[in-house]
């Protein structure tokens, strides 16, 4: 793919990811899940995201989520399904998304402009959504089935549906690319942290459930390989920083990931893709203004969560 085209697809994918993942930090969404007996935060979000796959084992969830600790996932799955069934959770997530977007967009003076942007994106991305081949993409395929059974009530819900499928589709492709490159999930997470443009280190470790021993061992392994250097932050915690070799490896993985979505995006030409950059920016700004991605978790507004 042309470099400009590739970068535009990456930019759009990151913004669609933000549109999808902003719900994970919403107190409104958390309260909605708590009504089902779920602990807000990681447990509830894991239930919501994995629910389309049904009552699968912890191993299946760990395999598809990739950068979470399998041992941590095993403390939640299948126990979560004793509290709420996957079928109820699928429906509850759509209801929570509806409440969230009503809170976020409902009283804005620029609602007409934002609705137009959301409608434009959903319509323009429909051919990409239709071109997705879910072979080998368990999480994306299950998510797409759930979304196809949902009737969105607003332009924002419709875009969330599309964004969620595309996000999980690229995510499954990214996992395959990590496997191809021989990079374990914890290493991929640390390399992302090391850029200083994603999760803060302690937040990444906590939200993905890695023990101190596992985290320190991965840091040491990556430092010995010349992919990270390890300093300390102002509180004395380890602060990984990616090296040029680490950036090269990350870019190689992103190139592989680009290839996993190229066929789907091929239904749009360069001009059509470029035209979506502006409306996507308009919508993502709303999340930044609302503080949807907390500074306690992210060094900068989130671009990617696997």
TrEMBL record:
InterPro entries: HTH_67
Stated name of the protein: SalK
Organism of this sequence: Brevibacterium ammoniilyticum
Lineage: Bacteria, Bacillati, Actinomycetota, Actinomycetes, Micrococcales
